[in-house]
Write a structure and sequence with these properties.
By secondary structure, the chain is an alpha+beta fold. The chain has one domain: Cyclic phosphodiesterase (Cyclic Phosphodiesterase, Chain: A). A four-stranded antiparallel β-sheet has the order 2-1-6-7, covered by helices on one side. Strand 3 and strand 4 form a beta hairpin. It is globular and about 45 Å long.
Length: 170
């Protein structure tokens, strides 16, 4: 039985503000591989190692989670780090107007738990923190969410490679 490293996501378009933020961090962190701009996304659910036999079940769960939801807008605003400023593993851009995203995420978590997926709620440090702080309140973009993707992530020494397995439109 074949497995893939899966996640469910909303893809993000890249604008000039996001590109500038990405480029400033990339210039500072020359020894760290950042996510390529075209791979930027919002993870609704990280699945981890997933049996390929479950793809159709996951597809139907995603469809069911969005069946009563029309396309909606979210605002990309602010920045932060995870888990904390002393040990940075992830640099993120925040989202606002997330009520529908929360509904979708909750529905995905509840339904995916029936397939055995665990339910979960979703890097010169001083210089890096100052860049992140500078963008903390910046509004990067407002986007329309009209599609959710089941994606495969393959980890390589050059960074992750993402592949779309299923595209589910609202």
């Amino acid at each position: 039985m074949n497995q893939f490293r899966g996640f469910i996501a909303v893809e993000l378009p890249v604008n000039e503000t996001i590109k500038k933020f990405h480029d400033e961090i990339a210039k500072l962190l020359t020894n760290i591989k950042l996510v390529e701009l075209e791979n930027m996304h919002i993870t609704l659910k990280f699945l981890g190692d997933t049996n390929e036999d479950n793809i159709e079940n996951i597809y139907h769960i995603i469809q069911n989670s969005i069946k009563d939801i029309q396309p909606f807008s979210i605002q990309l605003k602010g920045t932060g780090v995870f888990p904390n400023q002393k040990y940075i593993k992830v640099i993120w851009v925040g989202i606002e107007k997330t009520e529908k995203m929360s509904l979708i995420s909750s529905s995905l978590n509840a339904q995916l738990s029936t397939l055995g997926f665990k339910e979960k709620s979703a890097i010169g440090k001083d210089q890096l923190i100052s860049i992140i702080d500078k963008y903390r309140e910046v509004i990067f973009d407002e986007i329309i969410v009209d599609c959710i993707y089941l994606k495969k992530s393959t980890l390589t020494p050059q960074g992750p490679i993402y592949e779309t397995i299923k595209e589910i439109k609202f």
